[in-house]
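Trying the structure run again after the queue cleared.
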Amino acid sequence: MSESKNNLNQRIEELDKQVEWFYSDDFKLEEAVGRYKEATKLAKEIEKDLSELKNEIEVLSEDFSK
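Done. Tokens:
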């Protein structure tokens, strides 16, 4: 779980960097589509990781309620 959490944190940090780029002085329209695609991919990976964590928490909650 710790490794998964680190990967999730790394993905979130990378997504934050991608989003910040769109608001920075380094923004170039020519790069925007590629960066947007990368950010979208990261967001989907983060969403998947969060969904898996949610499922794991739900399973643990059920175990404790028995």
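The radius of gyration is 16 Å. Worth checking whether this holds up in the mutant runs.
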